[in-house]
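Chapter review. Work through the record for TrkA family potassium uptake protein before attempting the end-of-chapter questions.
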Amino acid sequence: MKQFVVIGLGRFGSSVATTLAENGYDVLAIDKNADRVQALADQVTHAVEADATDEDALKTLGVRNFDVAVVSIGDDVSANILCTLILKELNVPYVIVKAPDKLHGKVLTKIGADRVVYPERDMGARIAHNLISSNVLDY
Ligand code: ATP
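Structure tokens for TrkA family potassium uptake protein:
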């Protein structure tokens, strides 16, 4: 069974973490904000307070043993980039990163992110496709 680490527990990260956990997956949830960690403590396998730009902290947490990492640390561009770089250097096979914009997304791809997502844009496109699909009357 795949093991997931979710870094950054805003709306996006916590939704990913709790949904995976509800479906029976092992989830390590990380945030530097103690309140955010506490809010998820009962819902995931492990919830830990740590700075995701601190390589030693990520090593100590055994992040290298996880199959998938989801990074969603908000608008802090340098933290997003640094964290992604560390995860790829630790050989995490699949790293998904939430990007605030296209340029930022390009940088993330260049440093090794396996997938970059733009939740608002992606969800907008999905809703539009739903609306124009043949099932339009079902919405
Ligand atoms: P949304 O809430 O819509 O998902 P977002 O990703 O911009 O948007 P924020 O509310 O900014 O969400 O959440 C980002 C989270 O990332 C915060 O909980 C913040 O504490 C955490 N974070 C930011 N920098 C670091 C870091 N270096 N290490 C760990 N966590 C971090």
